[in-house]
Amino acid sequence: MKNANPPTQSVDPRRWLSLSVIIVAVFMVVLDTFIVNVALPSIENNLHADFAKLQLIVAAYILGYAVLLITGGRMGDLYGRKKMFLTGVAGFVAASAWCGFAGSADMLIIARVFQGISAAAMTPQVLSLIHVTFPAGEKGKALGIYGAVLGLGAVTGQLVGGLLLQADWWGMGWRLVFLVNIPVGIAAFACALWLVRESRTAERKKMDTTGIGILTAGLVLFIYPIVVGREQGWPWWVFISLAASLAILAGFVRYESRLPGRGTSPLLPMTLFRERSFRLGIIIVSIFFSGNSALYLIFSVFMQSGRGATPMESAYAFVPMAIGFFSASLLAPRWKRRWGNRVLQAGALLMVIGYAALILILGYTSGLGLAEMFLPVLLAGFGQGAITSPLIHTVLADVQPQNAGAASGAFSTFMQISSAVGIAIIGTLYQSMVEHSGQSSLAAAHVHTLQWSLVILIALAMLTFVLLAAISSKRAPDAKPAEKAKAMAR
Questions:
Q1: How does 413-426 read in b/e, with b if 16+ C-beta sit within 10 Å?
Q2: Is the pLDDT score of 473 beyond 70?
Q3: What is the pLDDT of residues 381-399, one digit of tens each?
Q4: Does any domain span residue 6?
Q5: DSSP 3-state helix, strand, coil percentages of the chain (rounded to 5)?
Q6: What is the number of other CB atoms lying within 10 angstroms of the CB of residue 85?
């Protein structure tokens, strides 16, 4: 059988052009995770949607996306990463059009599910293509661009949504936040068709359909209650669903471990977790992104409910974070080549400093305008950016090319799950602390609550720092046997 991605394949001369195209998909997908939040009041009025349906409009996308990321990545490995990317982009454009022209809340919810499924087909291919297309010396820079766009989409989602609602072109209102994907997606599809080189694993085996079924069931039962549980007051069925999901996911791990040698390619090769960088890196990803996603939620709630800011004013508060994140993401890969994981550890410390500065400002001033919080938020964003793209490189560094899609899907899945968990837990704590703070006013309650929430984020950032140090220390002993072998050879 012909090898579609042979080891001797030449370096793609158009790799940077192809990266500029496929990276657009990342921006669209991340943007659509956050952009809809600012449009919910307009959707509520226009489609007469109740709160439960508004919640499902948000949850449907996350559910379709997070549940199938590993499946999408593995399908790229087996059937072609370019093919799956193009399929995902085409589906995303079609689903975005469906969302934009939805005539009811129920139709919008269904369309959002298909939008998430399409995102799951194309997103893992981006990391996979970077992993198999770029030589080792350029991979860090490519991942730096990926990380910059990832963060930019997250922190500017509300801002872009607000601007589109404000523009209200052709009287389309909230529908623009979905329809804007159509011209962007069509352009990305056309360029990718021409520029992106196909790649897949050389060994073609049957797809692990049983594994897909088991994993999908387990992730649905885990993610759905986390996404909707907080707003519904954590009803009893949430905990039953979570317990069932853990049992099913444990069964999935056991099933996948037995697959090698049976002629079927595991959906998620368990050998990935034998690599210390991948195993420990996934833990860091879970801690890091749970804190970051929670920050976006609680800071937005603080600005609007605690400070009385409009959604647009709240979005402007994230601009310094976007500046810091984008700048550090582009610079961090170069710094990492020179100073190693100390760059990531410095990023964690910058986050701590930024959060601590916000706590002090909240304690000594009655206002928290853009001027007061510009520098602390900028530092926190810079710290996040200094971690994100080098962390991706660290997690995927030792992954074999034939498992690039599965590893990318696993990385993205853990990122999505940890984000949902962080929002659920820290968001619930924030809401509870505001209600029971005992402060003299609602504004004071929000200040007190944000301070304690930032203490939690500082603890997560410090834990990230410790685990990053552990990755560095674990690699150091590996060099000693090699040095001893050289000495004995002499």
A1: bbbbbbbbbbbbeb
A2: no
A3: 999 999 988 888 888 877 8
A4: no
A5: 85, 0, 15
A6: 29
The per-residue pLDDT for range 98-139, each reduced to its tens digit, is: 999 999 999 999 999 999 999 999 998 998 888 888 888 888
Assigned domain for 2 exists: no
399 domain-assigned: yes
458 and 403 fall within a common domain? yes
How many domains, in total, are found in the chain? Answer: 3
Q: Residue 160's domain spans which residues? A: 14-198
**Same domain (yes/no): 166, 244:** no
Residue type, 192: A
Q: How far is CA 311 from the centre of its chain?
A: 23
Q: Does residue 490 sit within a domain?
A: no
Checking if the pLDDT of 277 tops 90, the result is no
- The verdict on pTM exceeding 0.90 is no
Highest mean pLDDT among 135-149, 226-240, 422-436, 447-461: 447-461
Q: What is the pLDDT of residues 138-152, one digit of tens each?
A: 888 888 888 888 878
Question: Half-sphere exposure (CA, 13 Å, Cβ side) for 7?
Answer: 2
Would you call 380 helix, strand, or coil by DSSP?
helix
Contacts of 296 (CB under 8 A, 6+ apart): 34, 154, 155, 318
Same domain, 184 and 237: no
**Cα gap 487→237, rounded to integer Å:** 63
- Same structural domain, 439 and 462: yes
| Sequence-separated (6 or more) residues with CB below 8 Å from residue 324 | 377, 378, 379, 380, 381, 382, 383, 384, 385
Whole-number average pLDDT of the chain: 84
